[in-house]
Design brief:
The structure holds two protein chains of two kinds. Helix content of chain A is 20%, strand content 30%. In chain A, the strands form two sheets. In chain A, strands 1, 2, 3, 4, 7, 8, 9 and 10 form an eight-stranded antiparallel beta sheet that branches. In chain A, strands 6-5-11 form a three-stranded antiparallel beta sheet. In chain A, a hairpin with an 8-residue loop joins strand 5 and strand 6. The longest helix of chain A is centred in the N-terminal third of the chain and has 10 residues. In chain B, a hairpin with a 4-residue loop joins strand 9 and strand 10. Chain B is an alpha+beta fold. Chain B is 26% helix and 28% strand. The relative contact order of chain B is 0.17. Chain B folds into two domains: 36 residues, no CATH class; 153 residues, Umud Fragment, subunit A (Ribbon), CATH 2.10.109. Classes of the chains: A alpha+beta, B alpha+beta. At the A-B interface, helix 2, strand 8 and helix 6 of A face helix 2 and strand 6 of B.
Chain lengths: 181, 201
Amino acid sequence: MGAVTCLPFLAVLNLHVGTLMTVKGRSMSPTLNPESSNMFDVVYMDRWDPQTGKKFARGDVVVLKSPVDNELIIKRILALEGDLVQTLPPYPDAWVAIPQGHAWVEGDEPFHSRDSNKFGPVSLSLIDSKVPWIVFPFSRFGTVPPSPRARANRDRVRRAKGIEVVRMEQAMARRLKPEST
Amino acid sequence: MDRLDFRRMLWSGLRSARPAVVSINAVLIWHLVTEHIGSIKPTEGPSMLPTLANGGDWVITDRISHRLTLPKILRHGDQPPSNSHPSLTRGSLISYKSPIDRTRLVCKRLIGLPGDMICINPHSAPASLNDQKSGAARPVRHTVVPANHFWVQGDNLAATLDSQTYGPVPFGLFDGQVRAIVRLWPLEIRRVSNGLDYIDN
């Protein structure tokens, strides 16, 4: 009886405050699931900050729903609205301006990651939670370290000062590929 | 105080806390139901006129059936899913998280599913799209809705911020389907009808 009584409380906690999740895949290596580890990392997913409207910062690790297949993916935010980003190969343009309410996300591992270089800027509304801490393995317990390529990534982002946020229409013109007839 | 006394005190304390526990749980369960199964919410804004009034209309949103059936739609990939899908049909009212403002839920009409070709008519587009150049200079554009995205438009084409502005919306932002529209005073409940007509060819 007593255990059942706290189930709604736990469900709401899970929905609005945070939860633990195992990370699968190498895309965030070496920050999460480094090559040297043969076990999946467990991280804390903070749902409170994103849901209360707290602003995201460049360098935050976030969990979001992939715009490609709706799966949850874990990536790092490189740039936010108004920034100019230098892209990596699969993306058709060398530089891209991040439109209103969007972000550029990439994995820490440049080769095993399906990220914004593949699908372009993502809406911040797709972000489910922020990942502030690694919980397991205990040897790496603590806050998520910055990306090993943080310096190089910072150089790829231009903060567009004095330039207004890209109009959504221009951003869409990029996204809509005209149908070949 | 021996151990038995302590247990008796604990039990009596729990019994007196019972009404509080029950009422807190009722609130939490109500919240979980509105989050996962269905909710009723007020709407505002002119974008869905004449289907939804500028203010005062409430919508009953079904937030569970898409969780049960959406994967079927997604699996179609680039193939256009049949419009007879029980869960999601073109022309139904849906609510989704705004892709440009993560604090807002938006209610619009579903126009296109993955694989559909959309014609963007600049002459019917909102004024903000036309203010830079004259409307005539903008060509009519066609686009195909990519896999795992949908296309939405407001019913009031003159004043709506929708896919014509921000493009196809990923299914990850889907919130629910509007099943009924409620006006509180005078009390009136309308079932949502499909607002689209098909042109036979």
